[in-house]
Predict the structure of NADP-dependent malic enzyme.
Amino acid sequence: MSKVTKEMALDYHEEGKPGKIEIVPTKPYASQHDLALAYSPGVAYPCLEIEKDPEDAYRYTNRGNLVGVISNGTAVLGLGDIGALAGKPVMEGKALLFKIFAGLDAFDIEINEKDPDKIIEIVKAIAPTFGGINLEDIKAPECFKIETRLKEECDIPVMHDDQHGTAIISGAGLLNALQIQGKKIGDIRLVVNGAGAAAISCTRLYVALGVNPKNVVMCDSKGVIRADREGLNSQKREFATTRDLHTLQEAMKDADVFLGLSVADVVTPEMVLSMAPRPIVFALANPNPEIAYDLAMQTRDDIIVATGRSDYPNQINNVIGFPYIFRGALDCGATAINEAMKIAAVHAIADLAKEPVPSVVDEAYGMNNITFGREYILPKALDPRLLLCVAPAVAKAAAQSGIARRPIPDWAAYQTKLRNLMGDDGKMMRHISDLAKQTPKRVVICEGNMDNTLRAAVRVAQEGVCRPVVLGNEEMIEKRAARLGLSLDKVEIVNPRHDREAETRERYAKILASKKAREGFTFNFALDKMFERSYFGMMMVETGDADACLASTYSAGEATASDVVSIIGLQDGYSHFATMHILNTRKGTFFIADTAVNPDADKDALVDIARLADHTVRFFAQEPVMAMLSYSNFGSSQHEEATMVAAAVKELHEKYPSLIVDGEMQVEYALDTKLRDETYPFNTLKGKCVNTLIFPNLTAANCTGKMLLSMGIGSIVGPIQMGLKKPVYFTNSNASEQEICDLVAIAALDAITLERK
Ligand SMILES: NC(=O)C1=CN([C@@H]2O[C@H](COP(=O)(O)OP(=O)(O)OC[C@H]3O[C@@H](n4cnc5c(N)ncnc54)[C@H](OP(=O)(O)O)[C@@H]3O)[C@@H](O)[C@H]2O)C=CC1
Ligand SMILES: CC(=O)C(=O)O
Ligand SMILES: [Mg+2]
């Protein structure tokens, strides 16, 4: 996992616009009319409605999606009392996390005040702005009074995240670590180092989960908190022990679990060695733990270690919880975040860690095959499923405990809303998957012997997108599935090389040999080809044994474009087939072609590609507005590369006048409608936003798609096959599980559409 240096972190914060967040308008603002609605006079109407009924603030303002991240900087991470201003990077960071993980907007508010009563007054006074309040990095014991009073006096959810977020995440981690170590929660001996905001709240939650309070020893900066110690505050007194222990070192002997929420480097390897067999060490001080991860792991083989750091396994950080807890609470109009909601979040998070991990998560961490075990006790912070699991669990618990003002009426619709928060690209693909699910088709996935394809096959089967058939050796596929923790219950395996398939191979070979008789394919040659998965898969589709196929460009003896054309055939009226990629960017969704098939496209090929693209964009329920790209603008160059595109446009205008297409043009004129219309007022796309880019050649299209993806400018779906008679698609060896699932869904829907024709 990547390590972070001081220089990297400072550069990151300073680069471009300093800081990490900005405000983005959500309504049109370009015209005088827009401004009259957004501000005076129009804005007076929602004001008056809210005056009559304060609940209307959730209809007409951003209150229901806005959290205040409020701190006075007295316990910033483990850095201590560094002051309100110095804590701002942490609070901005939390605002960023709220946004990216749960679609919630957040303002960071740093209050230069230490008196708890004054802080309470300030927060109460600004509470109307927010749907919820996340108190952060306020030190104990003041934080207890501040949170308790604000919860009593505000009618919106208030949560001190260092207390409860930490308790929820580490509680989930504790349940899972105990399961792996084979220990019962009621029997364990727990040592807690730190007696502040996080430590007190974690210990309370652990007791609620089953830890026996008599088995808890807590230490603060002065050592073990014993009942005979003078001057203990009420929170410390709650966990004071009567045992004759004085130091952390004494307390650690024979302990099953160590929970550190204090400061760096206070735990030694000797202390860890003195713990009971199969110990659990949660060293959670940030940024440096009570004992470094590597050092603790080296002390003994039977240990589970977690820290607050993202650059080591088992990160226990409240980011796994707070975005989703607030999402669930705000969405159901919860008046608070109560115990039932917290316990529901604990179990949702703990259970998710036991599910197979999608490869997007592996990819995000540059890891392979993350599976539940001593180095993976909790979901990773970048796991997109957290939103879908935790927010509904929290909202349900709020409704069941009677504190939801607007209970979620339709859980399926709520899941869709949450999924939509993950972005537009997801929205279009979900629509395709939902359509495919209505008539699940038999889709052959030719490459069973790769992790990414096998995971995708299992996922599309489980989601009901299609009935996948995976090609390959059963034993190898089963072993791979077992290693990946995948169930093959709903996946059919066909081994093209097995004796069982001899008759099928012969049947397919006869058809293939007759189709390619004049391309050098004898029967025996065709029979040999049937041992190759891509050929076998394509023949399944050609003969109707399957509805669609996803072949892999890495199968041995991969089929060429000419083989595909001979086997499946081109659609009537076309002389070419091609591929399209869908690019999802912050500026919208764009369709680009041809990305994979025609290296020597001439004018006729460009005409076919544009016609096929028109058809395919409509398949995705969008109106195609096409630009034929070049380095030249409407005849500005007479080089043959440019004139070929111009000739293709001319033919398209003459023969296919219903297509919305123009060119040749440079890409910025394609994407900037105003620039194009002002400079070339005769262009036939006038006033329309281009969404489909036909590149003059394969290199340009292929490089553009991959460049934008590599630069993180967008996500991509494809290659989507256009122009063959049947849905035979191809994918690359490095395609992600998500990319393969997307292609399978598109191929399945393609098969359904074909059947209806
Ligand atoms: N990984 C995660 O998700 C999270 C980690 N944390 C980390 O936990 C730590 C505490 O945070 P928080 O509870 O908010 O802060 P607080 O200021 O509320 O509490 C700090 C506690 O640490 C105790 N302490 C300080 N030095 C020592 C020592 N040498 N030995 C034992 N105890 C000591 C203090 O003792 P005393 O009472 O005597 O002053 C106090 O009880 C920080 O490092 C923070 O980064 C916090 C939240 C989440
Ligand atoms: C993670 C966090 O909230 C802290 O360390 O304070
Ligand atoms: Mg904190």
